[in-house]
Amino acid sequence: MRLKLAIQKSGRLNEDSMRLLKECGIDIGNGVNKLKTDATNFPLELFFLRDDDIPQYVEDGVADIGFVGENVVYEKAKKVEVTYELGFGKCRLSFAVLKSEEFTGPQFLAGKKIATSYPVLVQKYLDENKVKAEIHEISGSVEIAPGIGLADVVCDLVSSGSTLFMNGLKEADTILKSQAVLIKHKNFTSEQQQILDRLLFRMESVKKAKKNKYVLLNAPNEQLEKIISLLPGMKSPTVLPLATPGWSSVHSVIQESDFWDMIEQLKNAGAEGILVIPIEKMIL
Ligand code: ATP
Ligand code: ZN
């Protein structure tokens, strides 16, 4: 039995999806140009599809799971379960207006023409804010619509905002914050769930490892207590004597988020020769 996973064939999510599988130790071989391929060392079959089609394939059970942006999941509104946040493909679905205009709130949109590839999510926002406006659905290059007189306002995916800026637009209200997620259908067998659990376990180990660093440092023994109190470690730090009398080597795991603060405090406490090493997998 193989779990069938749908990922984007080409586009912004393809590379990160493939990288994540590789980091999970799953070998895809060179089937990338095909419609589907088997992993060689894990019970997984890969389907390469347009991202817009992935929720439907998963709902129908043609694929069991999919990697796809939340923006697409919620726009398509298919019967699928969002199971896991993958941590890549981060963007926002936002309104954008001409640079010369002032977005004063939802009422600004009343009576306007809005160009978007996300008519369902835009309509929902309009309904929630009791605003009537005209939606023009277009499938790509939404940001040029105001410039060619097709619309007054756009609602599109933004990450840096530079595409909007180059087209004379500025970002206004955000409808949805999005990232790539793992979706699954609602008729999972226990055998399918077992494979998914193995995959989720690996993805979680990769994610945790990225958030942490392995630190090695040398410390004079009289400062050991102070230095150990600064380090969290998985249980407690490892302390080994150095060949030089009166010195020890201390090993620990620290979080990326408080990394620089921690290093400064360690230095001030007398630590020397600090080495920081990336962690590949972290199994707790
Ligand atoms: P396909 O050919 O598969 O339909 P596409 O053109 O619809 O591809 P891409 O532009 O490759 O899609 O974007 C795929 C997903 O990447 C988006 O649905 C979104 O979840 C995510 N994404 C992240 N940042 C951005 C961004 N700045 N602009 C657009 N999409 C982004
Ligand atoms: Zn698409």
What is the CA-CA span between the terminal residues? 28 Å
Overall spatial form: globular
Instruction: Write the CATH architecture name of the largest domain.
Output: 3-Layer(aba) Sandwich
CATH superfamily of the largest domain: Periplasmic binding protein-like II
**Can you tell me the residue ranges where pLDDT is under 50 for at least 5 consecutive residues?**
none
Total strand segments: 15
- Count every helix, treating DSSP H or I runs of 4 or more residues as helices: 8
The tally of structural domains comes to 3
- The share of residues in extended strands comes to 25-35%
* CATH level 1 name of the largest domain: Alpha Beta
SSE pattern:
EHEEHEHEEEHEEHEEHEHEEHE
What is CATH's topology name of the largest domain? D-Maltodextrin-Binding Protein, domain 2
For the largest sheet, list the strands in their spatial order: 2-3-1-4-11-5
Q: Bin the helical content.
A: 25-40%
The secondary-structure class comes to alpha/beta
Task: Describe the main β-sheet briefly.
Answer: 6 strands, mixed
**Ligand kinds:** adenosine-5'-triphosphate, zinc ion
Mean pLDDT: 94
Rg over CA atoms, rounded to whole Å, is 25 Å
